[in-house]
Amino acid sequence: MAYVLAGGRGSRLLELTDRRAKPAVFFGGKSRIIDFALSNALNSGIRRIAVATQYKAHSLIRHLQRGWNFLRPERNETFDILPASQRVDERSWYLGTADAVFQNLDIIEDYAPRFMVILAGDHIYKMDYEKMLAQHVETGADVTVGCITVPRAEASGFGVMHVDAADRVTAFVEKPVDPPPIPGQPDHALASMGIYVFDLKLLADQLRRDHADGASSHDFGKDLIPYLVRHGRAFAHRFERSCVRSGAEAAPYWRDVGTVDAYWQANIDLTEIVPELDLYDREWPIWTHAEVTPPAKFVHDEDGRRGEAVSSLVSGGCIVSGARVRYSLLSTGAHLHSYASLYGAVVLPNVSVGRGARLTNVIVDRGVAIPDGLVVGEDPVADAARFRRTEAGICLVTQPMIDRLG
Q: Subunit comment for this entry (predicted)?
């Protein structure tokens, strides 16, 4: 059974998560971030899936109901949405990642899976969990922890593992100041991906033990995994062993799109001639709620008023009406009017861009109506006064920001 932790607010995405949880944020034109973990589970042959939600979950739950309702109980397939509902007592919502599983342990045990794959619902990657499960069985591990190789200088923001030559975890530290290096690779560290494999019986015992510990924060990375490293058999599973790559992908791809800059970059990277992440791989599809839309349309063919998009992704339902689009991503239902110009723009669904507007290095939130002639991305001082501008120069534009322009 795959259990996806999707309750996080994702506050570093700023206004993008004002109305939705981070896993529900749009990505790649037609998907949501959570679709990657769910698609990995489905493509790996896992047909029992549960999603734990908490923060501002309506958008996420609606997406899951519309896009993931095809699993059928009569085929021994299940898909459960598990909002925080004070099931253990009347005061406690999900207190941590481990508690989000513990509070639903009776539901899980009713299904009686042998193995549990615990997943974070807020990363972009393609991975075959079956290979991680196979390693878990072969090593006789109490817990197997998915991990990626990162430069030591960047590892302080992760849970970091120290491993021996057999990849048994000998130490697990959360966000260390001085991350332990990989044996033989002094400049790199093994960082946790927030992916864990357990035997259900052992996981249930550990969750009950942790729940009874008043000093615990009830979190996998801070509490359960370090405990099992000290008292059990914890092994690391390296992402490169199970990452899914088509012939077009040169290196393993995993992204935490938890900041505005990282989110913008990961979307814009898709516009490359050969992007690092191949969304066109039919052997490993990214499942999602497919809205019924007409094809994208490009109209007008006059100098200065030609509907065109180059090095861009344009989703269904878009109308590029005499506008020019370069190195941008248009999500479903965007409507661009004459003489508008977009460069490095990540446009979420149902956005309208007015005549003559110029948008450079921006993220435009869902449903925003960009006024005629608005210029964003050319004057840093003006941008910072009106919109949310990062140090890297990316502007986030939401409808309340537009409304304040008067």
A: Homotetramer.
